[in-house]
Each structure stands twice: as C-alpha cells, then as structure tokens.
User: Fold this.
Amino acid sequence: MKPIVLAITGASGSIYAVRLLEILLSTNRDVHLVISQAAAEVFRRELGVKIDLKNFSLDQLQFSPDTGSALDESPEQNALSSIISSDSSGKLHYHSINDYSAGIASGSFLTEGMVICPCSMGSLSALANGLSSNLIHRAAHVHLKERRKLIVVPRETPLSNIHLGNMKTLSDAGAVILPAMPGFYHNPVTIHDLVDFVVYRICDQLDIKQGLIPRWGDR
Ligand SMILES: Cc1cc2nc3c(=O)[nH]c(=O)nc-3n(C[C@H](O)[C@H](O)[C@H](O)COP(=O)(O)O)c2cc1C
Assistant:
C-alpha cells in the first residue's frame, strides 16, 4: 500500500486532522505529515496542545483534560486520547513545512493521495493560483500534475466569490472539494459524532474501509 500525505493548515477544525490521522495509522496506512505554522496556533487555541514544528511527535497530540474546550465533554471519545493507545501499525513520517528535499515534493515519490485537512482559505488560494511557497503547496501541486487524488477540506463561512472561485479552479484541476460540513441526519450526540461524519467521508474518498460509517439506506 502506498503512503498517504496529510497536510494540516491553519483553518479551524484541528480535531478533524487528529481523528483522520488516528484512523489512517490504525488502518495501517503510512502517513507523510506536514503541519503549517498557523495550524500549530489553531491546535493550541482549539485543543490546548503545543506542537513543536521542528520536532513533531505523536505524543504532542496527547489529550489535556484542562483545555476548557468543548471537546473535553467526553474524554473517552476524544480522538486525542485514543491516538496514542490505538493499535497503530501505520508509520508516521513528519516533514517540516520548508523541507523541499522531502520525497513528497517530487512526482517520482508514489502515494495513494493527499488530504489537506483542514484547509485554510490562504492555502486554498495558493493552490488555485499555482503558488508553491511551502511543502504543502508543492506536494499538492505534485498530486494535481500527476493526476493523483487530492482531497481539500476547506473551512470558512461565509465564502466570498474569491473563495468560491478558487474552489472551482481546484475542482476543475481534479481536486475533490470536501468541505468540513457535517450532516445531522445520523442524529449526532457529541462533537465527535460530527467530526467523524466529515472524517468518514474523507476515508470514503481514500477507499479506506473502517466499517464505522452509518450509511444512508443501511437501516
Ligand atoms: C484560531 C484561528 C482560527 C482560524 N480559522 C480559520 C478558518 O476557519 N479558515 C481560514 O481560512 N482561516 C482561518 N484562520 C486564519 C489562517 O490561519 C491564516 O489565514 C493563515 O495564514 C493560514 O496559513 P496556512 O494556510 O499556511 O496554514 C484562523 C486562524 C486562527 C488563529
């Protein structure tokens, strides 16, 4: 199985990225991870975790019970608490955002696809306009030019014409635009139910069968 590239940028919704990372690793996917500086700030504010962008390790995502975050409401279901204990057999490869020597900066490095989750409007704009000023942009452009799967998970509201235009441009270029827009028809009870709704749709796109999705029509 080829690895998956996961890029985390500075849009709200770090918890989506943590849950996705957990599922990828626990379904034996090797993950090449890149985190933007703005994403580290969002992690700090939303989840109370401090990410060291120079020396990232999974234990930095450990759940902290005193963040005061709404995510604390149900620690036993918190992705942050389970990522460490999950029976992970996929390997994590972390790349610094300025490391253009990383394999994922080249089309010759084969992958199953790339997910940008969550994706800020800033990164979305860079991608739509061909900018390549960090490893996340570069790896995304590689996926587009090689006609590999690129899943972009934007988060912003409301959306300007510029945002909408950038999404259209990327969609025309072959990317899948999968907004962090959970549905409510599965009767969610916790925030984690809402997070999982979005993450499971990403897994569907990657053809990852984790068997947990309540599918419409199954009942
Ligand atoms: C707490 C916080 C939440 C943010 N939420 C969003 C958001 O939901 N969507 C967005 O496009 N930008 C958001 N931003 C702004 C981006 O982080 C900012 O535009 C940044 O330059 C994006 O850089 P990046 O794409 O390299 O991560 C947020 C910033 C902070 C500090």
